[in-house]
Design brief:
Layout lengths: L5 H24 L16 H26 L9 H78 L5 H17 L4 H12 L6 H9 L7 H23 L4 E2 L5 E2 L10 E2 L4 E3 L7 E6 L4 E3 L2 E2 L4 E6 L4 E2 L3 E2 L4 E2 L2 E3 L4 E2 L3 E2 L8 E3 L4 E2 L3 E2 L8 E2 L4 E3 L12 E5 L5 E6 H5 L7
Parallel strand pairs: 3-5, 4-6, 5-8, 6-9, 7-10, 8-11, 8-12, 9-13, 10-14, 12-15, 13-16, 14-17, 15-18, 16-19
Antiparallel strand pairs: 1-2, 19-21, 20-21
C-alpha cells in the first residue's frame, strides 16, 4: 500500500474542523418539527354570507328569467280575450313559482348554516366530553395514587410502633395494598425485608429463648422479644406466601393469584426464624451475614442467584433440588447443623471457600467443575458421614476436630492448610 503524502496529515485537523462546522450549521438550520395544531372552528365570515346570498339571488334570477321567457305567448298567435286572460293567469303562476324558488334557495342556505352549526356543536361537545372524561380519569388515578401513598406511608410508620399488634396490622395492610396494586409489590416486599433486617438481639440468646421450655420463660422480661418473634414469623410467612408456586410436568410454573413474581429479597444481616422458602420462585436473594435460627429450608426452589457470604445457619439447612440460575456464593458461611446440598444443579458456580461445616455436609450428585469447596473446614467426626463431590477430600489439620477440604491434587501434593 503506497504511503500517504505528508500534506494529508497537515490537512487532517482542517478537514475535521470543517466537518464539525458543517454538522453545526446543519443542526442550526434544521427546522424543528412542529407540533400538530388543535382543530378549531372559525365563525362564518360576513363576506361568505353575502356571497351565499348573492349566489342565491343569481340562481333565483336566472330561474325566474327562464320561466318568464317560457311563459310568453308567441307573436304569431292571434290575440283574443280568452288568450289574454290565460296569459295573465300563466304570468301569475310564473311569479308564484319564482317566489317559491327564491324561498327554496333561501331555505337551502339556511339549512346549510343549520347543518354546519349542528356539526360544529357536536364536535365541540364531543371534544368537551373527551376532555371531561380524561380529566375525570386523571383525577381518579391521582386520587387512587394519593390513597395508595397515604396507606403505604401510614403502614410504614406503623411498622416502627412499639406494639406488636400495630406492626402486625401494618404488615397485613401492606399485603392487601400490594395484592390490589401489582406495581407496588416490589416496594412492599422491600419494606417487609427491611423490617426483617432490623436488629432483634443476640441470635444465640434468641435461639436459646426459642428452644427453652415454655415453663421456664420469664415473659415479663422477654415479652418484647417474643412479640417481635411473632411479627417476624408473620413477615416471613407473607414473603413465602407470595413467592410460592408449583411446577407442571413440562417445567412451566403455575401458581394461584397470590404469586407476586420473581422479586429480589434483600435480607442482608437479618435474623430469620425457621426459614422455609421451599417450592418458591424468587429473584436474587441476598442473605449476607444473616442468622438463621432453627432450620432453613430452600428445597425445590428456583432462585436467580444467592449471596450468602458470612451467613450463619444455627440449624440444619436443606438446599436439595434447588435450581440456581446464577452464582451461589456461600463463602465464609458457617453451618452449625447438617448442610444438605445434594441434587442441586449449580448452573454457573457454587462457592464455599472458607466455609465451616460443624456437622455433616452432603454434596451428593454435585458436579466438580461447578463447585469451589477448597479451603473450607469440616468436622472430622460428624454424626453422619460427609459426601463430597468427586475430586474433593477432607484432610486433617492442626485445628482440633476439623479438617480442610481440598481437591485430590492438593491433597496428594501435601498442601494441607495449617488452619
Amino acid at each position: 500500500m503506497p504511503e500517504r503524502p505528508w500534506w494529508r496529515k497537515r490537512l487532517k485537523p482542517v478537514t475535521a474542523l470543517r466537518a464539525r462546522w458543517s454538522n453545526h450549521k446543519r443542526e442550526k438550520t434544521k427546522k424543528p418539527e412542529k407540533a400538530p395544531k388543535p382543530r378549531t372552528y372559525r365563525p362564518i365570515h360576513l363576506a361568505t354570507l353575502i356571497s351565499l346570498l348573492i349566489v342565491a339571488c343569481i340562481l333565483t334570477g336566472a330561474a325566474a328569467s327562464l320561466m318568464w321567457e317560457a311563459a310568453k305567448v308567441p307573436t304569431n298567435v292571434p290575440s283574443s280575450p280568452e288568450l289574454a286572460v290565460r296569459e295573465a293567469q300563466l304570468r301569475l303562476d310564473v311569479i308564484r313559482n319564482i317566489l317559491a324558488i327564491g324561498a327554496g334557495t333561501g331555505g337551502l342556505v339556511a339549512l346549510f348554516l343549520a347543518l354546519r352549526r349542528q356539526y360544529v356543536k357536536e364536535r365541540v361537545d364531543h371534544a368537551d366530553q373527551e376532555y371531561k372524561n380524561r380529566t375525570a380519569e386523571d383525577a381518579k388515578h391521582d386520587a387512587a395514587e394519593r390513597r395508595i401513598t397515604d396507606l403505604y406511608v401510614k403502614a410504614a410508620e406503623q411498622l416502627g410502633s412499639e406494639k406488636a399488634t400495630v406492626r402486625l396490622a401494618a404488615l397485613y395492610s401492606l399485603e392487601r395494598l400490594a395484592q390490589d396494586n401489582p406495581s407496588h409489590r416490589e416496594t412492599v416486599m422491600s419494606l417487609i425485608c427491611s423490617y426483617l433486617r432490623m436488629p432483634i438481639g443476640e441470635p444465640s440468646g434468641v435461639q436459646a429463648l426459642i428452644s427453652s421450655n415454655p415453663a421456664f420463660i420469664d415473659y415479663t422480661k422477654d415479652s418484647v422479644i417474643l412479640e417481635d418473634l411473632e411479627v417476624r414469623k408473620a413477615a416471613q410467612d407473607l414473603i413465602v406466601k407470595h413467592l410460592w408456586c408449583f411446577f407442571l410436568p413440562d417445567g412451566r410454573a403455575a401458581h394461584d393469584g397470590k404469586y407476586w413474581g420473581d422479586i429480589d429479597l434483600n435480607l442482608r444481616g437479618a435474623t430469620l426464624i425457621d426459614w422455609d422458602i421451599s417450592s418458591c420462585k424468587a429473584g436474587r436473594i441476598n442473605i449476607e451475614g444473616a442468622h438463621f435460627i432453627g432450620d432453613a429450608d430452600f428445597s425445590g426452589s428456583f432462585i436467580s442467584a444467592v449471596s450468602a457470604t458470612g451467613a450463619v445457619f444455627l440449624g440444619n439447612i436443606d438446599f436439595t433440588n434447588v435450581t440456581v440460575d446464577g452464582l451461589a456464593n456461600f463463602r465464609l458461611a458457617r453451618f452449625d447443623g447438617d448442610a444438605d446440598f445434594s441434587k442441586t444443579p449449580f448452573s454457573k458456580l457454587g462457592v464455599f471457600m472458607h466455609a465451616r461445616f460443624h456437622r455433616c455436609a452432603i454434596f451428593a450428585g454435585a458436579e466438580e467443575n461447578k463447585l469451589i469447596i477448597s479451603e473450607a473446614l469440616a468436622n472430622l467426626n460428624p454424626t453422619k458421614p460427609h459426601e463430597w463431590p468427586q475430586g474433593y477430600r477432607l484432610v486433617a489439620t492442626q485445628k482440633p476436630g476439623f479438617g480442610v477440604i481440598q481437591t485430590t491434587e492438593q491433597a496428594m501434593k501435601g498442601e494441607a492448610l495449617e488452619t
